[in-house]
TrEMBL record:
The lineage of its organism: Bacteria, Pseudomonadati, Pseudomonadota, Alphaproteobacteria, Sphingomonadales. InterPro entries: ArsR-like_HTH, HTH_ArsR_DNA-bd_dom, WH-like_DNA-bd_sf, WH_DNA-bd_sf. GO terms for molecular function: DNA-binding transcription factor activity. This is Helix-turn-helix transcriptional regulator. It comes from Sphingomonas aliaeris. Residues 6-101 form the HTH arsR-type domain. Gene3D superfamilies: Winged helix-like DNA-binding domain superfamily/Winged helix DNA-binding domain (1.10.10.10).
């Protein structure tokens, strides 16, 4: 059974949060999660052609920045956006980044 590390948001530095949101693929993943309650790892992928190893790395970075939480549901890994916790730590950051992302 996979065990994922989810940091306490008070331990996440601003530069790590900004780094996680700076990549267009990760930002797209966060936007998809913001639009829905939860997504499997495959459904969170920014495109169909992304290698699994790259997807895993993006998800790991988003987890380490405190943006997502990953849980196991049967054989699937389900991702949810930690929006309220993240907004409490960095007020307005996620909203501003999502509102200004290129389409």
């Amino acid at each position: 059974m996979p065990r994922f590390t989810h940091p306490r948001l008070e331990d996440v530095p601003l530069d790590l949060a900004l780094h996680a949101l700076a990549d267009p693929n990760r930002l797209g993943m966060v936007a998809r999660l913001a639009a829905t309650e939860r997504l499997s790892c495959t459904d969170a992928a920014p495109c169909e052609t992304i290698p699994k190893s790259t997807l895993s790395n993006h998800l790991k970075l988003l987890r380490s920045a405190g943006l997502i939480e990953t849980t196991q549901a049967g054989r699937e890994m389900i991702n949810t956006l930690r929006r309220s916790d993240f907004d409490q730590r960095f007020p307005g950051l996620l909203e501003a980044v999502l509102a200004n992302r290129p389409d």
